[in-house]
Design brief:
Two copies of one chain form a homodimer.
Chain A: H1 3-27, H2 34-37, H3 39-45, H4 64-70, H5 74-80, H6 83-116, H7 147-182, H8 187-190, E1 191-195, H9 205-216, E2 221-228, H10 231-252, H11 256-262, H12 269-294, E3 298-306, H13 309-317, E4 328-331, H14 347-367, H15 369-378, H16 381-387, H17 392-395, H18 398-430, H19 436-460, H20 478-485, H21 490-510, H22 512-525, H23 539-556, H24 563-584, H25 597-621, H26 625-631, H27 633-648, H28 650-654, H29 658-669, H30 674-684, H31 693-703
Antiparallel strand pairs in A: 1-3, 1-4, 2-3
Helix pairs in contact in A: 1-21, 4-24, 6-7, 6-23, 6-24, 7-25, 7-27, 10-12, 14-18, 14-19, 15-18, 18-19, 19-23, 20-25, 21-24, 23-25, 25-26, 25-27
Chain lengths: 711, 711
Amino acid sequence: MILSALLTSVGINLGLCLLFFTLYSILRKQPSNAKVYAPRSVAAKGAPTETNGFDFDRLLPTAGWVKRAWQPSEDQLLAATSLDAVVFMRIFIFSLKVFGFGGIIGVFVLLPINFLGTQLDVDFSDFPNKSLDSFSISNVDDGSNWLWVHFCAAYIFSAVVCYLLYYEYSYISSRRIAHFYSSKPQPNQFTVLVRGIPVLSGSSCSETVEKFFTEYYSSTYLSHLLVRRTSKLQRLTSDADKVYRTLARLKSEKDPQQRFKRDGLFGRKVDVLDHYGKKLDDLDDTVRLEQSSLAGKEVSAAFVSFKSRLAAAIAVHIQQGTNPTEWVTESAPEPQDVHWPFFSSSFIKRWVFKLVVVVACAALTILFLIPVAIVQGLANLAQLETWFPFLKSILSLTVVSQVITGYLPSLILQLFLSFVPPIMIVLSSMEGYVSFSQIQKGACTKMLWFTIWNIFFANVLSGTALYRVDILLEPKKIPGLLADAVPAQASFFIAYVVTSGWTSVSSELFRMTPLIFSMIKRLFSGKDSDEFEVPSISYHSEIPRILFFGVLGITYFFLAPLILPFLLVYCCMGYLIYRNQLLNVYAPKYETGGKFWPIVHNSTIFSLVLMHIIAIGLFGIKKLPLASSLMIPLPILTLLFNEYCRKRFLPIFKSYPVECLVRKDKEDQSDPSMDAFYDKLSTAYEDPVLMPIRHRRSTDDHNSPLLPAVV
Amino acid sequence: MILSALLTSVGINLGLCLLFFTLYSILRKQPSNAKVYAPRSVAAKGAPTETNGFDFDRLLPTAGWVKRAWQPSEDQLLAATSLDAVVFMRIFIFSLKVFGFGGIIGVFVLLPINFLGTQLDVDFSDFPNKSLDSFSISNVDDGSNWLWVHFCAAYIFSAVVCYLLYYEYSYISSRRIAHFYSSKPQPNQFTVLVRGIPVLSGSSCSETVEKFFTEYYSSTYLSHLLVRRTSKLQRLTSDADKVYRTLARLKSEKDPQQRFKRDGLFGRKVDVLDHYGKKLDDLDDTVRLEQSSLAGKEVSAAFVSFKSRLAAAIAVHIQQGTNPTEWVTESAPEPQDVHWPFFSSSFIKRWVFKLVVVVACAALTILFLIPVAIVQGLANLAQLETWFPFLKSILSLTVVSQVITGYLPSLILQLFLSFVPPIMIVLSSMEGYVSFSQIQKGACTKMLWFTIWNIFFANVLSGTALYRVDILLEPKKIPGLLADAVPAQASFFIAYVVTSGWTSVSSELFRMTPLIFSMIKRLFSGKDSDEFEVPSISYHSEIPRILFFGVLGITYFFLAPLILPFLLVYCCMGYLIYRNQLLNVYAPKYETGGKFWPIVHNSTIFSLVLMHIIAIGLFGIKKLPLASSLMIPLPILTLLFNEYCRKRFLPIFKSYPVECLVRKDKEDQSDPSMDAFYDKLSTAYEDPVLMPIRHRRSTDDHNSPLLPAVV
């Protein structure tokens, strides 16, 4: 790629971003779009009333939203959203710091050295047509002493990144502890999930749990709730709820004429309400029947609640029975975070599933590109002409054929890629996690490795890698191979940051898909339906995408520093836009207390070590074997640093220490509202589908906008 | 090696064993050897009185000891010794089962197949001169279908070994739990060791500990004892104790004439007692001075005792402070098991030391043979003649020179090898372990890898391996390399089992070194001194030696099954002899409750996987690629089995579950003697050198035979 081509691409994408921004700042002011651009305030205050008067201001693009997104302090953001959202924003702050520092060194020190090299032997005079490679390390002469500058830069940059990692880890840990201290008593703090209950013959599961915990936690045991297998019931209730909502909407229609018009297909007007009413009654009866029959379908798992946080922590941390595969305990998730359908209880089953998922995930990640390549091969011009002969005349046009050959493969890749996050969610839920947060966390890690493998390595080793998985059996050759292939892809990844990064983040602001859906809905139903769910951010697809840019930035820092300014722009935009979205669009669905951060930390450490390995190979290729050998301690030191961080910070993200637990428990002792809390606690983990129908619906009506359903 | 040579070697070693047995059965009846062969009963009942009358029976070799060693049931053994000793004996029982099963298949199925092969093309008629290789798998024809029998044998044998491993793990876990239930309240069950105490400025370490635990464990905290740095004091007190003992002996001499005779060097008889008395007073004064000055030398570590076992377990399992590197807790060892001198307290320091030890250990293990080879090279005949010219005439004798060239290298190797266990102990103690049991456990693992590398791999890859550590960077080639080299060494290892195994175990019975020491002592001092220590078994040097034979047996099971009968003989002898020694000679120094078993388990899993890797390579070499590929699932299944065992049993060996702890705590509540126990508990972890001098000596006099000092 030459410089002018890059500039063109930057220009086009900058234009696109500006277009999105302008459209956004206009569209968001239209009251009809409130549910798309400010669902949180709609859920809190109700939809803004549609003023019929024409307002010129509403058509002017303004940048007020930028200020409103920028202004709130981190504490205000925490109060408005969740600690997870704050941690999510810290990824951008951390990236800004890293790329800011790296950018200064890269652009002002490394770039000139690269540019003044003569290895690639390109013409000096024709600046705009200069290949981007002349800005990369490939242009430095073999064996040149200037490479020692790169060597020092790698050391300094690694040290700074490690310092920033340490600082950030320590900052987020302290926030996590502070957040715990400031939290009100919550059911999940007092509850553990027990699986693998060894039911004795002659006594029920419930009795066994009761007996065990009254015997061994006599002073702190409060109550328990058995988990039941409810997948069938879940389907029934969701059907019944749908009918119930339709009925409710029909009843509340202000203009009776309207509903006859819409439901006129049934003929008589009385029929409509009657029809739905009967259907609902039938369904409710079935649900009640199923609920009563379910009482027996226990899965030998239970939520056990205690009177204090410390007691719950004891139950989690110390092995319960003499057989470690029985009475397996873990911290309970928040009640609204529980993922009811997947409740595999047997230890062995979960273990086997975990292994299967690991294998499936690895296979999916490594072999993903093979089916994609095959489908892409099938969908070429000639094939299309055979399948759809009537398209022949259109396909013979040069423009159309060029568009198809140019865009069809990448369209197919994108299509396949969009299936991956849901697949990862399914795989994670098969592992036996019991909460959405754990499932999303598991999927987040899986997606990260998937992205790194299928975008980074697949591009770098372009094709051959798929058939060279066996290179892992010859680890000696890896640095050389990477050092050969990675710098060559520098210009591709710079273009990737500009096109994919900038556009994805600005389309995140614009919310293209929900906007179109909302428009279609209004077009067909004439009016927005009242029921809508506040979306929640899908950490499992967003975090890996952002972290991948981190991997790119760190890896290419000393290979092709030109990438860093573009990443800086990406991070700035991302910071503003995601802040805006978190404040206005996404409602927190759960609170893990920042448990996503360790993924960010590990990904950064991986990027550093990857950079070091490439550096080792590169200095070897560049005929500077001394630098290559002197590079070897750097990854070792980095891994040791990581090991230290694991010991110093990771435990804080796993559970809370005695100090915190006891202090909070003591605070509660003087709190008169605790009795009411204990009462609520004993039913907090009731499976929603098992609640009496009326009761569930009344709570549903209250909660649904704040606590949206499944992912 | 040819068959007749092997038979000769077997004959010689069998003769040696018989000689040792005969000598033992005579010598052990001599009352003067009681301290060598039955120190436990001497410590319990005092030395048997020397009868002057001549008794002919005492000179007859009898086998009564075999019966006495065989008879006690496992429960009796447990009562007489410790659970660790029982677990130690289980190694032999387990090995007997494995080699018994393997021996039947190997000798009756595999051996005939190997023998009937024609690959090595040796003469049939000359049976005694047949090479041992014709009994190994090398003799089976390439590509022969008979190899599928070996293939099946490998699968069946692995399955049986895994079943036995599972059975044994489960049996020992249940014994461990049963032993805990039957144990009396012990200080270590109620106590935790806290390190990394963050001392606030303005308050002492003791106050900080007191404040923390009274606040967070208000209902269960009992007391604490600070740890102090006492290495200087330790030297002083041991000097003082020596003088004290000499003085005590002098005073108690029945015949005053004797002591003048012996101590006559000093001239006047009054002087002797006076001299020692003064010296003791001086030393005691210094000790007292040092003790009082030590009060300030705290190491920010403390033993904290609780009122219940559960509270101690809570303190161990749940992170204490918000900083995981502060208030680091671990279960306290038994009071007599504490290793006082090494008390590094800082988290970072211990972590760095651990890393250093890992590196040092790996370096020692991998590079051990290099200095040995160099010294062996220096100690050749020519070199000796240059160094010691006066030996020239002796060295020129053929016999002498042959002995020297034949035995000197192996003598030097043995000399170097004998230094290794103490080095491993030092390395382990540097890791920051606080008890002898942990140190020995650490050293045991290190010794195991050391033995496997330096005896197995160094012999198999003979020399080249030292310079081929980089083979680890090309894992693909490993199976082929091993399959090529391992079967070739079969006859060497058969001879090794016979010479090293049989002899080592029978000389263990004979206790050569202690016997000689005791004889020399009696010869020079005329009479045994009263002070002696009951030895304790060094698990860290015995277990790896036995496990190494396990590695040999499992690895060679299908390569050269001829090794198995010899191993069976070794195990039978070992079972009897170690039972005898545990009952009569070695006193338990600590009780880990069978924590050594996981090492045995892991070593067996390693052997199985090693066998599988060799099999994969071997079937490849033998031109049976299908068998080679079908072998690949076996190591994977074995490792999965191991993973399952880690989940199912390992937690039981780490700590006791709530169920056990609470049940024992409840038993204690009705026990009236608990108050007295709590009183004792608060001083149980007093550093012995810090006790008032008189008090220490009186307890010393009681305890020393049962609780011998440092390893």
